[in-house]
């Protein structure tokens, strides 16, 4: 049988532990898996692009578990009352191929993206960082704010979005965290000025320039989350040229990240080398650091592992006969002869 976690189950799981705790604990799962980077069979995600968006599959495996995520990115969806990003994922047992978990991953992806952002900032941001500019106040923004507040002690967030309603929504939701000072900025430049950390999480599928080089001050850490597919960027190329750039998986980031603007031999460092101590994160207090985040399948693997472990501990979800449960594994045909449960209920 396969454990099934739907949106309601995930919401219950988070309600029992609290979102800050879930983010912090998931970040530790992500860190643990990046520490064993060589154990994974990796590839860049598989993407099918359309004029208005993209649908992707993100697979990864180690010797024990195979994970994949189905995820889309359609910025115009909100005009039709749909989410920009929707996802589900699965874990399978490598020894048998049996599906172990089938789970929603729209909310889970928001949690894992925020957990990864804050985890990386521990290595790249200055130790005394307390303020963050959050540019782009859509569906991912609350998770980023909570993650940096919980994991790095950020106590001041400056908000800006070209959609004032999105900013008002975010500010209202962040009232649940009274220790977090929220400032509404009138422009990107106003939000960024003097910030220790700048997070960009915009949605348009375009070569955009959300941050210009003149906005960036010595010592800032940039957490670029929104640029995550070919033809989609957020930063002035000059920023990327002068920053210390950390990426998740270089072959994927070269296609999808901010570094798609750069020559193929431009210097970058993969995150796993920083986490395991092979390479430094921040090298000095005045250095500009950039996490060119596009999201990588190991983070989904970690997130699914976390959800499965917590679901088992809290007895969340239900068992699903996703694969036929047979008395004789060589007689698949016999399963068709059994009275289907739905039909039995209908006749009762």
UniProtKB/TrEMBL annotation:
Keywords from the named record: Lyase
Top-level taxonomic group: Bacteria
Enzyme class, spelled out: lyase
Pfam families in alphabetical order: OCD_Mu_crystall (PF02423)
Enzyme nomenclature, EC number: 4.3.1.12
Coiled coil: none
Example of a GO MF term: ornithine cyclodeaminase activity
Protein name: Ornithine cyclodeaminase
Organism: Pseudomonas palleroniana
